[in-house]
Amino acid sequence: MIDMIEKEEPIISEEEAAQYDRQIRLWGLDAQKRLRGSRVLLVGLGGLGAEVAKNLILAGVKGLTLLDHEQVTEESCRAQFLVPVTARGQNRAQASLERAQYLNPMVEVRAYPDRPEDKPDDFFLQFDAVCLTGCSRDLMVRVDQLCSQRNIKVFCGDVYGYYGYMFSDLASINPTTTASFCSLKEALEVDWTSEKAKASLKRTPVDYFLLHVLLKFRTDKGRDPDPQSFAEDSQLLRQIRDDVLESLAVSGDLLSDDFVSYCFSEMSPVCAVVGGVLGQEVVKALSQRDAPHRNFFFFDGRKGNGVVDYFGPN
Amino acid sequence: MVQLVGSLRKELADSLSSCRVLVVGAGGIGCELLKNLVLTGFKNIEVIDLDTIDVSNLNRQFLFQKKHVGKSKAQVAKESALQFCPTANITAYHDSIMNPDYNVEFFRNFMLVMNALDNRAARNHVNRMCLAADIPLIESGTAGYLGQVTVIKKGLTECYECQPKPSQKTFPGCTIRNTPSEPIHCIVWAKYLFNQLFGEEDADQEVSPDTADPEAAWNPEEAAARATASEKDGDIKRVSTKEWARSTGYDSIKLFNKLFKDDIMYLLTMDKLWKKRKAPLPLDWQQLENHALFNEDSPGSGLKDQQVLGIWGYCKLFQHSVETLRSQLEQKGDGAELVWDKDDPPAMDFVTAAANLRMHIFSMNMKSRFDIKSMAGNIIPAIATTNAVIAGLIVLEGLKILSGELESCRSVSSSTANYPEVISLVTYEEPYDELEECQRSPDYFFCTVFDTFP
Question: Is it true that domain B173-229+238-377 has CATH number 1.20.1250.20?
């Protein structure tokens, strides 16, 4: 049974009030107090992860735990601003800790170097919200299933070159609102063979299918497309695109070859946009203010537009 | 064969490392923008900001820490950015972009100028300089959850001044002086009062009852009679508020009784004003003091600024702030004037007290210092995430410009107005024929339209 004890209402000190002044004027003191009482887990400290970390730490959550098993590479230095250039070879979460803490000493920031796959269920249950970046599809599905049952808010997000997305599962065991959320599993396993689904295909952002392709690449190769292996990765991406669209029973024309050369690495401005939207969604959910995006946000950095859309059982 | 450097095609990455760009402003948008630029691969960046760091900046201007409060924004932003990108070539100017040193030649050094400003005057100025130098400008702004990015290029798009911008809301003098009905009227009155007593006196900022109020007259003849009477009635008009205050030695209780008792009683004689409105209730210092002795205000819990005091609390705050401001004035010497600043505690205390006393007189619920500061200081709420999104969009537009894709540039806005498109594109307006004047002649920095919209 989940913990039903009312959390002690956090006090906002005069020091915090001075620092958070401009945001308290936007979302109010009660919202700030709820943030002040929230603990968040952030998995993955790549470009997107660093942006989300910054946004949540500045917002003034109680604690942010960073979890990442990857090492700092030359690529990481290009992608994110928390890791010192001298930290090559160190664990990415631990290397990001110092700068992350400097952003706001009033937040408890912790870093762990473990693989999220190796963490027991209990680990994830100590948080109010969990945010997964750079994770495999299987891990995201597992953590989402585990956490949403316990009323822990789940967010996922990634940036692939010029493209990015975020997903949220705010399903509550006591839903008070009419808007509902579904699991990531359900969101990804939409049946496109039904008449209704086929009819809605025209209005469906192709980014949804692109996401499937990139998640499959990540599962198959254990990494994301790498500029160093551009030729082979491009070919593999095209192949996976064909396979994925076929398995989803949708037209191969939906995703042209064009996307292939634009989904490598993490583009800083795209990380900033997706990280900003994702960060704000986490803040909204923790502060219980303002309508959340249901349940995906897709950003296309080439076109420059970003759209919210719902995918799930009809 | 496509070659990539990170996410970018090699040709684009190469052009980024050689071009020079200018960022105007190192605040909310500026910090995020600087970070995005260096991470994307821009190597030659100049950043200018006249401001220093304040603690209220720290919730979003993430390149700054508590220890930097008081230092130059441009300078600290540069140092922090160099920490995660030591090979970037960043020049910081702690200066105003409106300084004539930054002339058209200066602007011509850059391939791209990006504004990260918070005021219209500077935006107008940079707009004109970029038109004159024929350099693309990316304009942007944020407020709360909303934000917008627009590319401005001579000959291709409207400039920043092509469309008249709404000017700040003003209120009729008689509303401020005679018949306030909303807290903002009382706050504006309190700011006028500050200037009348301690700052630069302005004929448009009168605080005494307006006897020439057309609403006060029962008939046109009476209006005329009142108008002439006010000129003869020295008590109200002839002596300036500052002179009168000086003559009393800025005695806070005398000031209080004049502003919150005598002047209100005068207003009550203009009985037509109160036929359909609730009449104001004058305050008496002595009465309030006596009452307070028996009903001591208990201090509330929680943040000081968010509390609403009792009437006697604001009487005391009025007294205390007048005394502090009086000595500030004395210290500055003869003919000195104070300038109102929301971050100067006695100045803010004064407006809080005076506005609340007036609100109470006019039967409005009094407000906390926090709320009054928002209105008096025109504070725009701001958060990190909106600035992060907008700064990301700025760089994406910048990349299009540097790839020679100006025509594909759009005005982009971040809001829920076009839900479910939360980041949406607006196609450009073509520059109007009659405005081409501004964009062709090197001597005309501004649109001819601007002349007709003062």
Answer: no
- Indicate if A157 and A202 belong to the same structural domain: no
User: Is A73 within a domain?
Assistant: yes
Average pLDDT (B233-244) is 67
- CATH classification code of B8-166+381-451: 3.40.50.720
> CA A174, CA A151: separation in Å to the nearest integer?
9
Q: Which of B40, B86, B410 sits opposite A304 (nearest CB)?
A: B410
Torsion of CA B327, B331, B333, B337, to 10 degrees: -60
Residues A139 and A58 in one domain: yes
Residue from the list B1, B4, B422 with its beta carbon closest to the beta carbon of A306: B422
Does A106 lie in the same domain as A18? yes
User: Is A173 contained in some domain?
Assistant: yes
**Whether residues A77 and A215 fall in one domain:** no
d(CA B69, CA B71): 6
Task: Say which residue the tokens 């004037």 belong to.
Answer: B337
Alpha-carbon distance B280 to nearest alpha carbon in chain A (angstroms) = 31
Min distance A136 CA to chain B CA atoms (Å): 21
Contact: B144, A26; criterion CB under 8 Å: yes
| Amino acid making up residue B296 | E
For chain A, how far is it from start to end, CA to CA, in angstroms?
Answer: 30
The domain that contains A89 carries what CATH number? 3.40.50.720
Strands B8-9, A163-169: parallel, antiparallel or unpaired by DSSP? unpaired
The pLDDT assigned to B426 comes to: 73
> Are B410 and A309 in contact (CB < 8 Å)?
no
- For A272, the closest of B382, B391, B425 (CB atoms) is B391
On whether residue A176 sits in a domain, the answer given is yes
Q: For B294-335, what is each residue's pLDDT tens digit?
A: 766 666 778 899 999 999 999 999 999 999 999 999 999 888
3-class state of residue B382 by DSSP = coil
- A151-162: pLDDT as tens digits: 999 999 999 999
Entry pTM: 0.91
What pLDDT is attached to residue B414?
87
* Residue A149 and residue A282 in one domain: yes
pLDDT confidence of B364, banded at 50, 70, 90? Answer: very high
Produce one character per residue of B155-182: b if its CB has 16 or more CB atoms within 10 Å, e if not.
eebbbbbbeeeeeeeeeeebbbbbbbee
User: What secondary structure does DSSP assign to B75-140, as a single string?
Assistant: HHHHHHHHHH-TT-EEEEE-S-TTSTTS-HHHHHT-SEEEE--S-HHHHHHHHHHHHHHT--EEEE
Q: What residue type is A119 in one-letter code? A: K
**Cβ–Cβ below 8 Å for B40 and A79:** no
Answer yes or no: do B4 and A104 touch at CB < 8 A.
no
Q: Among A241, A261, A281, give the residue marking a domain's end.
A: A261
Do A173 and A199 belong together in one domain? no
Query: Which residues form the domain of A22?
Result: 14-186+266-309
Whole-number pLDDT of residue B449: 27
Q: Where in chain B is the domain with CATH 3.40.50.720?
A: 8-166+381-451
Same domain, A235 and A217: yes
Task: Spell out, as residue ranges, where chain A has pLDDT lower than 70.
Answer: 1-9, 173-179, 314
Contact A69, A113 (CB under 8 A): yes
